[in-house]
Amino acid sequence: MVKSVTPPLHLRVADALRGRISRGQLPVGAALPSEAQLCEEFTASRGTVRQALAALRNEGLIGGGQGKPPVVRQAAVAQPFETFLSFTRWAREMGREPGQRTIEVARRGASPVAADALGIDEGAPVVEVLRLRLLDGIPTMLERSSFVEPVGRLLFDFDPDSGSIYEHLLGRGVDLRAARHTIDAIGADAVDAEHLTIAEGAPLLRERRRATDATGARVEYGDDRYRPDLVTFTIDNAQTGRAGQHVLKETS
To answer: Is 241 exposed, middle or buried (0-12, 13-18, 19+ CB in 10 A)?
Structure first.
């Protein structure tokens, strides 16, 4: 039997406050309860509460302080690069409830963009997935994925509404080893607007992804579109031994 591990109290306090901010219970500009109030509410020491508040400051969710209760700076939660391959994992690590609503899983000919990204001929068979991703039930990201056919066919015996596609594929022996990400801004098209409940033309953050296996063979091309009022992206740079070289690290 696997025993569940209760997260440290400072993480649970941070998760609770993060949830209140994202749900609008603590809107942008609102002051958080004082440290004394938080200590009493969560039966926590002042040091524990300060750890929780420091985590929220590092994420850019709160600011201020200096003897006064901190205030909410933004409601969007940050997603680091390392977790791009699993929306489900990232959401759970943030103390949020991930969800998904599958709109389509279909085998069809690769579009010109997908064909270029996957290194296959235009019209070659791929399996396309269109899913709406949710945070605490709120439409947050529209996910478009094109898998090479031998990998994508493994999705026809899987319910994409049940959880992570990547976890399923890894469990079936698919080698998802690396990915290249490109981030830009794009206006919502009619499909985005319908499913993300926003106006057509509204700005979205787009993350395009090309996933490969250990040999460098291309496995998936993704085009994920996030509501910027709900999600931001974070990058930590660490200089390596050679000047001008940087690596991406996960932020917490």
So the answer is: exposed
Q: Within this chain, do residues 68 and 81 fall inside the same structural domain, yes or no?
A: no
154 and 103 within one domain: yes
Helices (H), the chain: 9-22, 35-42, 46-58, 87-93, 112-118, 149-152, 165-171, 190-196
Entry pTM:
0.64
CA 14/CA 9 separation, integer angstroms = 9
- With 0-12 CB in 10 A as exposed, 13-18 as middle and 19+ as buried, what is 251? middle
- Give the CATH number for residue 42: 1.10.10.10
Same domain, 233 and 182: yes
**Is residue 72 a contact partner of residue 57, using CB atoms and an 8 Å limit?**
no
Instruction: Check whether residue 97 and residue 185 sit in a common domain.
Output: yes
Same domain? 83 vs 131 = yes
Helix axes 46-58 and 35-42, enclosed angle (nearest 10) = 110
**C-alpha–C-alpha distance, residues 187 and 198, integer Å:** 11
Residue 251 has pLDDT above 50, yes or no: no
3-class SS of residue 101: strand
* Domain carrying residue 30: 9-72
Query: 167-203, pLDDT tens digit by residue?
Result: 889 889 988 878 888 889 999 999 999 999 999 999 9
